[in-house]
Amino acid sequence: MLTRSKPGWAIPEASATPEGVYLNRRALLKSAALPLILAASPLAAGLARAAESSDPSAGLYPVARNPRYSLDRAVTPESEVTTYNNFYEFGSQKEIWRNAAKLPVRPWTVTIDGMVEKPQTVDIDTLLKAMPLEERLYRHRCVEAWAMAVPWSGFPLKALVDFAKPLGSAKYLTMQTFLDSSVASGQRQFWYPWPYTEGLTVAEATNEMAFIVTGAYGKPLPPQNGSPLRLAVPWKYGFKSIKSIVRFAFTDKKPDTFWEHLQASEYGFWANVNPKVPHPRWSQATERLLGSGERVPTQLYNGYGEYVATLYSGMEKNEKLFM
């Protein structure tokens, strides 16, 4: 008989926030916790409702949860996740969510090019209907030593790689966000290397943990969280999880990524989480949980080592894997 042991970071499904608590809106309205959440951020709640009602993909959610990806901590309150954001296109402060929430996400097209069988540009809603949507409970660890746990909806990045049909000679996947300084005031700051660019090896991109996020908390993803497409690579620091993607390009050359270009000594290409490797200006040994403020120990690869550690076997001596 085939059996599978649970990963070290997982707990029984019953210990995670129940699916109905945040997916079933009628249950939420009856819950005593909802008035507290809405009172904490009524504008955020209003914007979320407005975005959901105007998003043509709203009917796709909620999607079925994949039980393979569970959590060892409570899901972070939605109000925290939607109002505490890094999105440098709109500024460097965490409170930029009000401006970022105004990002128009329709019409939106995605270009797939580079070393592929046939370059193409696809409308976001056409792409969503072609992808196998599911929900995953993922931890997110920022390089700034704060963390959250989110019910992301979306599809495996591998599904998009298969859709793109890259050539066998492609070794890396480069991703870029939108470029429109008339909407994103942060892009008027000429000292940043816009557009925001990130990259993975094809091996990383096709790992089962690499996920393209299109929704959260059973709804379309809010613009301030990276709508309509963002990356989630939970074993890496959060700056690798590029938001509002408009281009996927396959290449045989290592991408020049946004933060590595700005400060390679602090923000490397690999950016894998490791509590024993400090940032040059602070420790990475612990992390602060959004919502509770509790500080907990950081785990190697953010607790996902059993899925991803083999990607880096033999690279330790020549690559700065944890920066």
List keywords for this structure.
323 residues, alpha+beta, Sulfite Oxidase, Chain A, domain 2, 7-stranded mixed beta sheet, 5-stranded mixed beta sheet, 11 helices, 20% strand, disordered N terminus
Notes on the protein architecture:
The protein has 323 residues and is α+β, with helices and mostly antiparallel strands. The chain has a single domain, classed as Sulfite Oxidase, Chain A, domain 2. The chain has 11 helices and 12 strands. The strands form 2 sheets. Strands 3, 4, 7, 8, 9, 11 and 12 form a 7-stranded mixed beta sheet that branches. Strands 2-1-10-5-6 form a 5-stranded mixed beta sheet. α3 crosses α4.
Set out the fold topology:
Layout: H1 19-23, H2 25-30, H3 33-40, H4 42-54, H5 78-81, H6 97-100, E1 109-114, E2 120-123, H7 124-130, E3 134-141, E4 146-156, H8 157-164, E5 172-177, E6 197-201, H9 202-205, E7 211-216, E8 219-220, E9 230-232, E10 245-251, H10 258-262, E11 286-289, E12 295-297, H11 305-308
Parallel strand pairs: 1-10, 4-11
Antiparallel strand pairs: 1-2, 3-4, 4-7, 5-6, 5-10, 7-8, 7-9, 11-12
Helix pairs in contact: 3-4
